[in-house]
Amino acid sequence: MKQAVDSFNKLQFKNQKLLVAFSGGPDSVFLLNELVKYFQDTAKEHLVVAYVNYHDSPYVDEEERIVDHYINLYHLPFYKVDTQYQKKDHNFEDWARDYRYRFFQSLVKKLDLDGLVTAHQRTDLIETYLLQKQRNNLPSCYGLQEVSNLGKLTIYRPLLFISKKEIYQQLKKENLSYYEDLTNQNLKKKRNYLRKDVIPVINEDEILTEIEKQNQRLKNLYQQFEKITYPVSYLIYDSFSSDDQKRFLFFLLDKKKVFLKDSRRSGAVKDLFSFLKNHTPKEYVINQKYSCYRLASSFFISKGYKNISYSYLFKENKIYKTPYFTIDLKNFTLFNLNSLPVEVRNYHSGDTLATNLKTKDVYKQLKKQSVPFYLIKIYPVFIQNEKIVAVPFYSDLKSQKIPLVLKSFF
């Protein structure tokens, strides 16, 4: 079929070696047949077939018979795994999806392949979009993408703009047998209900146009997200709709590499969304490594201010760089020091100044100077003869009046 060939060319399949997800169903039979015709005599060099038998129905023998038929027909490298559903905290579909993609990932890595090809077609694209709308999901892309990534696995979906009707017509034309999964007749499943009762009566071209417009809007939105400077101003954040604010929070978690399980990730965004409705300075702990710091006019996500402890002894009048600050001690008198060496460490609870200042409590001094609450734990104090002899004024740091620059963990 010309549409399939055009898609294969667009995705540059001639230059790749690919794993084909195969089930013996009409879509995967169509895909495998088109790929074999596309590569012709070199099919064995470009294609590896993978099949998962879930043993989830009394008809799996028929399914496997169809799979074996095409493997024997095309003589392609073939990998099969047998498994059975173990009832746990999730439904069969979620479990099966997770199982097969882990299997596919392992094969792509083991065989050093370029990616996975699946047989998702136009109906799958529309079904996915309609389900996303029904569930009020906030995806970064509506429907399905021709190329996407699951971890390090690249997934190709070359049939997204070929209809189910066209697939059946081609199978009939070429007299290709396939296995029809009877579980797809279960109308209690939302996807099957959409497939049987909703999609046949809608204008698919209008839906596809709607999906394209929605995805163009999201593309523009994420381009905006990329340009936002850190920390994030509430003026910018509050200009987004509630849904787009949540999208932005998902975006930030990804950008900052805050790795959370899917369920915890959604919960974290929900909590962050509520947390950011208030602008009073405060910390929200996301996990053991990361926090969101809410300031008076902005916010940011960071892992840099938690559980930090440092201590450095400087003996020479030169520039020093540490993971937490850079300091120029060539003119150490700028720090109210009469001599070197000096120990510079972070503030500890209960620290007191060994000077004649009226307020000796370091914490009170830092609060009085309006040091941001998240910086207090890492704020530098200067020690000589085991006594705190100086604490830099925060205003002097900000104005660069003294040559000490705290590292930003934004």
Question: How would you sum up this structure, described in words?
Answer:
The chain has helices at residues 2-10, 26-39, 43-46, 60-74, 92-110, 122-134, 164-173, 190-198, 204-227, 234-237, 242-255, 262-275, 362-368, 373-376, 394-398, and strands spanning 18-21, 47-53, 78-82, 115-117, 147-150, 153-156, 232-233, 282-285, 291-294, 298-302, 311-314, 319-321, 325-328, 342-346, 380-384, 387-390, 404-406. It is of the alpha+beta class. The chain has a 6-stranded mixed beta sheet. Strand 9 and strand 10 form a beta hairpin. The longest helix has 24 residues, at 204-227. The radius of gyration is 30 Å and the shape is elongated. The protein starts with a helix and ends with a strand.
Q: How would you characterize the largest beta sheet?
A: 6 strands, mixed
**How are the strands of the largest sheet arranged?**
3-2-1-4-6-5
Q: Return the CATH topology of the largest domain.
A: Rossmann fold
Counted by DSSP, the helix tally is 15
Give the total of domains.
3
Q: How confident is the prediction overall: mean pLDDT?
A: 90
Question: How many distinct beta strands?
Answer: 17
- CATH architecture assignment of the largest domain: 3-Layer(aba) Sandwich
Radius of gyration: 30 Å
Helix content: 40-55%
Overall 3D form: elongated
Low-confidence stretches: none
**Structural category:** alpha+beta
For the record, give the distance between the C-alpha atoms at the N and C termini, rounded to a whole number.
52 Å
Strand fraction band?
Answer: 15-25%
